[in-house]
Write a structure and sequence with these properties.
single chain, alpha+beta, Arc Repressor Mutant, subunit A, three-stranded antiparallel β-sheet, two-stranded antiparallel ribbon, 5 helices, elongated
Length: 135
């Protein structure tokens, strides 16, 4: 059976068909198996993808340039400037413009943000290649 990294060929096909909008029942008919088996294939594939993402993040952390804590109470409008300042101090060119940086923060730390301020501490990990992780 062919593998795509951590994914089997069947798992890849199930993910592709689900992305196209096919139901478990429709895919089960194509594979001549049960809906439950298709569900299990999809769950295992998604679990393996999550493991791969966490592994990549762990490897990046080993090569981390700087860790920045944005404490609660900071105005949202001040967050990008804080991140840019720290990156500049370490001579790192971030891979984000101002708008992309705000979007990344909102996407990754949305539940920690209020309308105009940080509600819970946010950790930002900046890497030498200009990428970052926001938690």
């Amino acid at each position: 059976m062919k593998r795509w990294g951590l994914l089997t060929e069947k798992q890849m096909k199930v993910l592709q068909l689900r992305r196209k909008g096919l139901s478990y029942r429709e895919i089960a008919k194509l594979f001549k198996t049960s809906e439950e088996n298709i569900y299990i294939l999809e769950r295992r594939a998604l679990t393996n993808i999550q493991k791969a993402r966490k592994t990549i993040e762990a490897l990046k952390l080993m090569d981390m340039a700087v860790e920045l804590k944005i404490p609660k109470g900071v105005k949202l409008s001040e967050v990008p400037a804080k991140i840019y300042r720290v990156a500049d101090e370490h001579k790192i060119k971030l891979n984000f413009n101002y708008v992309e940086l705000l979007q990344e923060i909102a996407d990754k730390a949305g539940e920690k943000l209020g309308n105009k301020m940080v509600l819970q501490d946010i950790m930002v990990y900046i890497f030498w290649d200009g990428s970052m992780i926001v938690e």
